[in-house]
Amino acid sequence: RxxxxxxxxPVDLEAWLTAKIRRDGPVPVSDYMAACLTHPQFGxxxxxxxxxxxxxxxxxxxxxxxxxxxxxxxxxxVARSMQRTSLLTxxxxxxxxxxxxxxxxxxxxxxxxxxxxxxxxALVEISDRLAAEQARTLRHAPVAVARHRDIAEIDGPMIIIxxxxxxxxxxxxxxxxxxxxxxxxxxxxxxxxxxxxxGAACALPSTLAxxxxxxxxxxxxxxxxxxxPGGMLATIAAKAHRAPLAALFIDYxxxxxxxxxxxxxxxxxxxxxxxxAPGRADLSAAVDFAAFLEAATRSGLSTHGxxxxxxxxxxxxxxxxxxxxxxxxxxxxxxxxxxxxIQRLLAPAGMGGRFKVVAVASxxxxxxxxxx
Length: 372
Description:
Blueprint: H1 13-24, E1 27-28, H2 29-38, H3 44-47, H4 60-63, H5 65-81, E2 89-93, H6 99-111, H7 113-116, E3 120-124, H8 128-137, E4 145-148, E5 158-163, E6 172-177, E7 180-188, E8 194-201, H9 206-211, E9 220-223, H10 232-242, E10 245-254, E11 264-267, E12 270-272, E13 282-284, E14 287-288, H11 289-298, E15 302-308, H12 309-316, H13 318-328, H14 332-346, H15 351-354, E16 355-361
Parallel strand pairs: 2-3, 2-5, 3-4, 5-10, 10-14
Antiparallel strand pairs: 1-7, 6-7, 6-9, 7-8, 10-16, 11-12, 11-13, 15-16
Helix pairs in contact: 5-6, 13-14
């Protein structure tokens, strides 16, 4: 008698997703995005070199050292405002190559060394490759540095930094058809690869539903489930109720909820089709800051912002710090690089206006710097 062979194991994420969809049916956009970014074997963060000229994108800390330095000074003011009975942890979620934390620690050591006394650094990172790079960057850190895979692993008084992390959290999407919102899904295309499809009717979250009155056929709604138990915001809120906590998030997005699709893929510093190269391109979507802050408020956190990145950095003293660096520049080329980096961070039509800054904190903490 014949015995059928076991199917060959998948060789990449496209093969893994194809097998999954053929077995279980089309997957929601949120599941597709999560697999593309965080699949333990084939996900983007596991396999790709993402940040820098040789990667797919550049983040603010890589553009100018001033960015991380100002975050360090922000951390110092917030830390001194906390009434805490145990040691402080300064945590960064998605620390990239460790550049922001290195710059922040240098600033703290120079102007607020007392904040580092007894403090610890926690880097929340799922990528082993990036974690190794962070360890090299911070090998001379003035305090102990620990790696964690989830913010849930850290307890006690905490200051959290998240630069360009919210945009990587998976989004759900719905398409308005036949008089109802229907979940947008990803299916296997007849010609190979993947294609958009639609599933069952679904309800929009309240903030988006208010903005979606009178939808037209084909409209797309996009949202994140901020209050999912065990999710990042729910975890932060639970910790903020037990010990003093403040979290700063900087990301691209919109201040008010609105219809529209923002899911995008970036590969080699260029925009790419989101379904074209699963696991080999960075996927992100704009942050709905109104929905995020409403969810944070419902979770019992105090909230601040959103304000533009340009306004936030301006209030923290970016101009003054840039002038110091320019005065110490040893060549015209160095000075030009400093000026170009600052201009890029502050450009109204670019990062300065497109990126927003918000903070959430334990009730009773003072308004953090930059938001007053």
